[in-house]
Structure formats: C-alpha cells, structure tokens
Amino acid sequence: GAVGMRLRSGVFASSCLLIQALGVALFLRGFFPVTVRSLPRREARADTPAEPAPPGPGMVSNWTKIPSPLFHKVVIVLIDALRDDFVFGSKGKQFMPYTTQVIEKGTSHSFVAEAKPPTVTMPRIKALMTGSIPGFIDIVVNLNSPALLDDNLIWQAKTAGKRIIFYGDDTWVKLFPKHFVEYDGTTSFFVSDFTEVDDNVTRHLDSVLKREDWDLLILHYLGLDHIGHMTGPNSPLVGPKLREMDNILKKIHISLLSKEEASLPNLLVVCGDHGMSETGSHGGSSEGEVHTPLLFISSAFEKRSGSPTKPERVQQTDLASTLAVGLGLPISRNSVGNLILPVIEGKTMREQLRYVHLNGFQLSRLLQENTPAYEKDPGYEHFKVAEKSHGNWIKLYLEGNNSEILLNLGKKVLKQYLEALKTLSSSLSKQVAQYDMYSMMVGTVIILEVLLLLLLSVPKALSKRAEFEVPLSPPLFSLLFYLMCLMLCAVHVIVCTSAESLCYFCSMSWLTAVGVMMLISALMCGVLSAIAKIFENSRLPLKNSVVSSSSWSEIDVLILAGTIGHVLSLGASSFIEEEHQTWYFLINTLCLILCQELCRNNFLIKECDPHHSASMKQNFDRIAETSEFKNIDILAADSSKLGKATSSSEFIKGSEKWISLATPWIILICCRLLRSLNQTGVQWAHRPDFGHWLTSSDHKPELSFLTAFSLLMIFFLVQRRCSLVSKIAMALGLLGVYSYRAAVGNVIFPWQHGGKDISK
Question: Span of the secretion signal (predicted)?
C-alpha cells in the first residue's frame, strides 16, 4: 500500500541541509532580538516639543525652541579599555594624580558608567553616540564597520553647523564618514604597538588646542587596550600609560580653562568604551569589562568639598542625551538613555524641567513606535502625570509667583520626571535584551527533527547506497500528519494571542506559519517511518547494493571547506588571537571523517558487496586454469599451500586493517595531549597546563626523561633508511641537542647531583 519516492543520497542530504538552515535562521532570529528603532532619521525630523501647556483655556508656553547650549567647546577623551579602578582605585591615585585631584577637589562630576555586553569597541562607540543598545548582531558587523545610519550625536552636531575634529581609532572614521572637518585615524590591528598608536593622536594636540576653529574635539586612545591584550591589567606597562594619559588630560584641561569665555564655559569628558577582564581581554560581561569611568570636568560645576564619595552608577547610553543637551542639540531618536542630572544642576529650575521634559518626550515617543500597548506602560503613565504637574508649575511661574513654594513644587515635579525617565529607559532596554522564545523553540524543533532523520539514515549513507526511500502516503501517516498539523496550528494561535512580547514567528503571514507547521509534521512522520523501517529491516537480510562512484569524496570536500574557512577566519583579530582553536576543531573533524571512511572501506563494502569476493574467486580459478594448461598436476599439498598463503596474506591484511582503524583515534588522543600541553591565545592563556608543570624547576627529572626518550625515538624512526655515516652524524646531532639544553639548564644529565651547574 505505501507509495514511496526514491531520492539520491545527494538530493536527500541537500534538502536536509536546506531545512536545517531554515531552522537555524528561525532560532537566530529569536536569539538576536531586533533593536529598538524609531523611523529612519531622514524621514522624521519632528520638531522639538514645546513646554507642557499650563492648564486653562488658550494658555501656551512661549518657550518652543530647543534650549541653547550649556557649553562653548566640548572635548571628549575616550581611553580604550579604561577600567573604573584605573581612575577611582589605587592605580588612579598612584598614576593619575592630576585627574584624582580634579575628581576629589575640582569642579567635576564623576560616575561609573555601565556598558552592556558585548563589550567590543564598535558597539560601544555606537552606544555612546546614539544612546541605543547595540545587540550581539553588531559584533558580527564589528569588523567592517559600515557608516552608522541611525540618528546620532555626531550627525546632529554636524547638521547644527558644529565643527568636529577627531583623532584616534579609525572605527570612528568608518562609522561617521564626512562628518569631521579634520581627522587622523589610527588602526587597532597592530596589538603589539603601545606607543606609536597614542603618539599619533597626541602629536596634533598642541596645535589644535591653540586654534579656535572647532566646537567638538574627540580623541580615542588605543594604547591601554593593546597593553591589556598583550600583558594584562596588572602588568608594569599599565602605570606609565596611565601617567601619560593623566598628563594629556592635564594639558587639555588647563588649555580649556585658559581659553574660557565669561558667558559659556567649556567641558571636558573623560570616558572608557569598555573595561578589561583580569586577563586583559574584553567582550564579555564580567565586572571589570562592563564598568568604565565617566568624568565631566567644567568650570560650570560647583567645586567639590568634603570627603571624596563613591561615584554613582549611570548607564553608558546616558552620555548621548546628556551631551545633546549640553551642546543644545535634539536628543537622538533611538536613545534609551537618561539625562545625567548633576550636569545641569547649575541651571534654573525652569531650564532643568525643560531638559528632563525633552528627554521624557523623546523616550515616550520611542516607546510608542516600538510597543503596541504603550499606554499601559508604567513609565508612560508616570511621564503623563509629571507632564501635567509641569504644566501647573509653569502656570504658577508665568503668574510671577517667585516664592519658596514654587521651588519646592519644582523639585517635586523634577523627581516625578526622573522616576518616569528611569522606568521608560529600563522598559526600552529590556525590549532590546529580550529573547523571542517561541521562534527559538520552533527553530530548535526543526533542527532536532532533521538531526534525527539524518542519524536514522546514516547506515544507508555509510553503505554508499544511492537511494533513500521517502514514504509518501501510508494511510496511518497521513492521519498522523493532519492531526499534528492541527495541533501545532492550535498551539500557534494560543501562543500568538496570549504573548505580551512581540514574537517574530507570530508576525509572519498565516500561510508561512502553516507551511512551517506542515514541514514540522512531515519531518516528524519521516522520522517515525524511518524508525519503523529499521524495525522491519532488522528481520530482512541485506539486499545487495550498487556502489556509487562520486568524483568528490567527503574528505576532499572537508579539506577544501576547512581551508577556505580557516582563511576567512583570519579576517578577524579575535580569530587570529585564538587561531589554535580553529586548528583543534579542523583536525578533530578530519580524524573523525577519516575514521568513517576507513570503517566504510574495511567493513561495509565487503559485506554489502559480493563483487569483491567474486573477483577473488575468479583470480584463483584463473591460476588453476593456467597451471592445468601447463599440464602440471596439482597435488593436494599444493592446494593446501595455496590455502595457507591466502590465509597468511589475509592475516597481514587484517592486522593492517586494525592498525589503520586505530590510527585516527591515536591521533585524536595525541591532539588532546597537545592541547593540554600548552594553553595559548588570549582568553585562557593564564590557565595551568602540562607545559608549565614540566618546566617548573621541581620537575626537571621528568622533563629530562621525556626529552631523552623523544630524541631516542626520533633516532630509531629515522635511522632505518640511513647509511652508517648518516647514522653517526645524526646520533651526534641529537646528543648535541640534549647537551645544549643541559648547558642552558633546561634538563639535567643522570650523573648530575644537586644544583651543580654543568660547564658550558
């Protein structure tokens, strides 16, 4: 009754791969959440909102334009991989005396800014300049960072006619092409360069600070990050580098103070893009990697007095909106950051309320564009309440009421606004970091089903049988198929109508969703029928099969793919640092494929393949015929001799077979030993390994024994093919190798007692 369709194994494998790719794509779509986006910056240039209108008929505020800037010139010094304890901890006190003095006694505000993972330079620059949270998907694009199209501070500043100068990491130049009136990019690729990469930034400083033709100066120093990558955060190189940075900050600060105009003060911002872990790398979410210092230094602020306090926590995304207000620009549309209040504390109450209202308005608009049920959001409700109180406050203010009551009411409104900002910001940030579980589950189910199907069809694949039977319509399965489709569609409806968060899979058209459901059901039926077939086949003997000859074996494909993959991986600095991991992976895969190939050649072909034994038989017949042709009687002894010969040759073949089968596994074991011999790379280089154990002074005898044994093995393996002279020469050479190591003190001779040095 079953109608089947026969598929070539190649076609079967390709279709499995395609379905697998679909499953992985669905899973990744759920795993990498979509960033919170407003409309593209060119479409919506919404005007700045006016102050909230006071209650009463026909009342409007007369302040509709964007507030004027708070600062004349702004210098941003971004020090790559500057960890918070490098400034606020013991290292800061020791190596950055000027900065410490400004933090504790000067006119400054200091914070610890928290970066969201991934802590890699490009996503962090985006976070600092747009105020949005780049997802993990940005890591993938980190290498060839294209121009940043989101609304951002640099673009706003350029549009407002500000002249921007940039020196430092060329990632900025790629992200903001044609935005700077003058720039000089340094490359972060030469990790061993600690000095030139910073001198190339500093050499422009003196001339630029003297000039008047700029409004915003950005410096991005890479040296500290390189030192971290090469030698870690506790290396002796970190101190001098911090001292160098301290002197640069001193020079900039003094210059800004001397150039100051009475009307508008200047601002110096010092920040890091990410920190570094205890091993000096970054990218993850450990304490050291996500906490960076953020300093605002300007004569606009009050002088610090009293004992130094612990700096407050802010988010890294808060910088964008704070700087936008400081420069008198609109806040970037995708920003999820809050205004850092201490920076605007010196202003009048009306101005302060205006600033936080602008920030709240921008956040609530972003929420509206990204959440269908935004009115129910607690942050949005808080904001609307605060806006109302703000209107009442303005009414009192415009009536000329100037008492203590007005100030206290103002403080209350400000507090309401800040609460609303916090709630809005956190609900927007959550949206970015949320996984879409439903899409991930559907993807996982598809992947697992394909995997099962592949595993069940491995025996057929190994026997190089050219075809797979795909059952199409056994009556039982058709019923099962429809039942599963119905059930899955029901689940889909329930999930999509009840889920609060947006599911990607729910936003697909119904046809697509039903198609995916049918695919899942069909795969399930395929798996079940394959299992049923295996049970049937276990009762039937093996049918003979045709050996298909394909021009490319799996090994050829693997070697080609591995070579191309390895070459492509060298495009990323992280892959270069951990290149050994690529090699471990490739060699293990190659060994396993070899093992499969050998199994197939040694066992399956003989069993499934009567041709092989037939050809052996033919050979013997031919020998018998020729001897008959020469009229030589074949005696019983002769035939027994012949039998003996074949059995011994088969025995040799058998041992060779087992040796060839064992080889890949021996290689795999050796590879495992090699991996534990030496921990290398950046991430795990500090882990203890067998190499360290051997080279420690307590284990010299073990190292000496291993060295001697290895040299002897080399000799015995090579000497078989050598002439006598070569043998002697090689023995002397290997002895020389050992003696040299003994003279240097790496190994010892058996007769050496105690730590007596051997004469060189």
Answer: none
Report helix angle 510-539 to 437-456, nearest 10. 30
| Contacts of the segment 590-593: beta carbons below 8 A, 24+ positions apart | 590/555, 590/558, 590/559, 590/562, 591/664, 591/665, 591/667, 591/668, 591/671, 592/664, 592/668, 593/554, 593/555, 593/558
Exposure string for 294-308, b = 16+ CB within 10 A, e = fewer: bbbbbebbeebeeee
**Nearest to residue 265, comparing CAs of 86, 73, 10?**
73
Exposed / middle / buried, residue 673 (Cβ in 10 Å: 0-12, 13-18, 19+) = exposed
**Length of the chain as a residue count:** 760
Contact 698, 706 (CB under 8 A): no
Provide the token pair at 679. Answer: 């921990």
Angstrom distance (rounded) from CA 276 to CA 233 = 7
Q: Taking the model in full, what pTM does it have? A: 0.66
Residue type, 712: L
Dihedral angle at the C-alpha atoms of 41, 47, 48, 52, nearest 10 degrees?
-130
CB 352 within 8 A of CB 414: yes
H/E element, 300: none
Instruction: Give the contacts of 641 (CB within 8 A, at least 6 positions apart).
Output: none
Residue recorded with tokens 């001339």: 207
Instruction: Judge whether 418 and 17 are in contact, CB under 8 Å.
Output: no
Q: Is the pLDDT of residue 672 over 50?
A: yes
629-640 core/surface letters (b: 16 or more CB in 10 A; e: else)? eeeeeeeeeeee
Any idea which of 71-85, 212-226, 672-686, 719-733 has the lowest mean pLDDT?
Answer: 672-686
- The single-letter code of the amino acid at 754 is G
Each residue of 298-321: pLDDT tens digit? Answer: 999 999 988 888 999 999 999 999
- Centre a 10 Å sphere on the Cβ of residue 183 and count the other Cβ atoms it contains: 18
| C-beta neighbour count of 751 within 10 angstroms | 6
Identity of the amino acid at 182: E
Domain boundaries, the chain: 6-33+437-532, 73-316, 694-752
**C-beta atoms surrounding 94 within 10 Å:** 12
Q: Name, in order, each residue with C-beta under 8 angstroms of 725's C-beta and a sequence gap of 6 or more.
A: none
Give residue-wise pLDDT tens across range 356-405: 999 999 999 999 888 777 888 899 999 999 999 999 999 988 888 777 88
Cβ proximity of 434 and 403 under 8 Å: no
- Cis peptide before 118, with omega less than 30 degrees from 0? yes
Residues β-bridged to residue 294? 111, 271
Cβ contact 356:419 at 8 Å: no
With cut-offs at 50, 70 and 90, classify the pLDDT of residue 266: very high
Residue range 35-46: average pLDDT? 56
Cα 467 from chain centre: 41
Please state which CATH class domain 73-316 belongs to: alpha beta
